[in-house]
Amino acid sequence: MAFLEIKNLFVDLKNFKLKNINLKIDKKDYVTIIGPTGSGKSILLETIAGFYKPTKGKILIEQLDISNLPPEKRCISIVYQDFALFPNMNVYENIAYGLKKKEKNSRIIKEEVEKIAEDVGITNLLNRIPNTLSGGEKQRVAIARALVTKPKILLMDEPFSALDVRTKDSLRDLIENIVKKYETTVIHVTHDLDDVFRLANKTIIMKDGEIVQNGYVNEVFSKPLNDFVANFVGANVLKGEIIGKKDGYTLIKIGRFVIRSIDNANVGSKVKVYIRPEEIILSNDLEDSIVCSVEKIKRFNNILWIKLSNDCFTLNAIVTPNITEKRISIGNKIFIKFDPSKVRILEGNGC
Amino acid sequence: MQITFRNFCIFITLLFATIFFGLIISLFIIPSFTAILNSLQAKEMMYSLELSLITSAVSTIAVLTLAIPIGYALSRFSFFGKNFLKSILDLPIAFPELVLGLCLLVFFGQTFVGKVLNVLGIKIVFTKLGIIVAQVFTALPYSTRILCSTFESINPRIELVSRSLGYTEFETFRNITLPIAKEGILATTIISFARCMGAFGAVLVLAGGSYMYTETLPITIYLSLSYGNMDMAITSGIVLVIISFAAIYMFEKVDRGRTWHF
Asked: Worst-scoring range by mean pLDDT, A18-27, A59-68, A277-286, B190-199?
């Protein structure tokens, strides 16, 4: 039984529509929602919070229909990218605000506020007013304020996007630890795939107001359901034809090259093949390898992103430079291989 | 000195500020100090000053009571005909005050609504209540605009967070929106009061310019000019200028660093 269930949800905002949203989220899941700008991620989040009324469909928490409940009755907290702290209150009052609605005993309120302040590392900021805080501090306050009421679900709308890389990283650590400690179910809208890999166990991909794929992160990233998802999650998409089967592998002809996959497909069918950039293997031996030339190189911290091409296709690959750096320079020829278990086939959409 | 666009703009500003200042100062230098003092102590002046202060205070409260929900509705909610309503509410800004007064006179004097109110014992035409009604209609569009702009400047997500933390729409408005908007509300109070004190055309037509009955300070100027009592007219003008100056000064204090959209 799902903790949060969304059934056939439609939301009509005149200039934008959410269409036929179906979703099941278990208790303590950390779910990220990703998708291009304008895909409806934030509107879905705010509909769950109760800020938009569905035109059709249901939102259920623990089997209880909350679709028509006002936001204040849902027990769902939200954290925004612009923090949305109450400027007329200090940090202590910001955090205590939600608690005061539920708890009248000021001693208990004080204890709870101090406890969460310690957990998010803002004990020294309790008397400060919001506009004297840094971005990272403000977001810690917003997280504390959202969690102190022990919500059934914590919603986060791009909570790290206004922060610098270091702050972002420390807040990711904080979120990772604190949602575990508070056993919170989280739905987190993001544009940053690092958030997905670091924090989430499940992810949802949206496009034009619809969910195009959702599931466990590994599953979505390793087996995209269509071209859009593949492109969005950064997978390479190659067009080919199934030419036969051998030793339990399906043989796919891509231009003049033949590669293998463990996925099944009908011989003769035109297919699309998905390969993740980090699953491309740089090879030293020529056998079963494909030769490519290096077109572009970008360095990110401890990895290299390289664009490879030959006369049949173009690929993006992600490699660690320590073992390969010598061979990788623009214009060089290198050999690559694919692990058949990482080559995914989508039948019927080939060229 | 090189004539630049910057210098030209500053020159025009200085020129007109000086002319305005000269206009105001002329009020103070033409009559003798004794004449001003005598006029200030006159029964008529005391009456009109008191009436102006009382009616303006009541009108300001009424204006705020109306302008806060109107400003909030126009800034926060989407509803059918919102832009049309906004235009209707703004109309009195562009109207000559006399036309506004004429509309009020016809509405409260000739229409069914006016007659019903009359039967109920609520007399508006040519009464002190008429002064308040005229002042409210004169000041309301300005106040609505300032408050609409104030509420628009508040991040709506702050209110959404409050809702998610268990507070109803009204509780959120009371606990979060109003305290954040307090400077805007204070500015609105000052501007409304100044507008009510200075309201003339609408007050004259709806409440009538009755000597020592519906005689507010602007009406005193008008009546005094009619009788040829320049000292009384100028003294009333000086009182109004001082009140307006104090209001504008306070508004500027509150307004510092904020932007209102008129």
From this structure: A277-286
pTM for this entry: 0.84
Centre a 10 Å sphere on the Cβ of residue A19 and count the other Cβ atoms it contains.
Answer: 15
Q: How far apart are CA B67 and CA B70, in angstroms?
A: 5
Cα distance between residue A223 and residue A342, in whole Å: 9
Q: HSE-up of A127 (CA within 13 Å, CB side)?
A: 1
Host H or E run for residue A203: strand A202-207
User: What's the pLDDT tens digit per position in B220-243?
Assistant: 999 999 988 988 999 999 999 888
Residue A322: is its pLDDT beyond 70?
no
Give which of B161, B167, B176 to mutate to test A binding, by max A Cβ within 10 Å.
B161
- Residue A84 is nearest to which of B158, B168, B175, comparing CB atoms? B158
- Average pLDDT (B27-43) is 84
Q: How many CB atoms lie within 10 A of CB B257?
A: 6
Do A86 and B158 make contact, defined as CB atoms within 8 angstroms?
A: yes
DSSP readout, A107-149? HHHHHHHHHHHHHTT-GGGTTS-GGGS-HHHHHHHHHHHHHTT
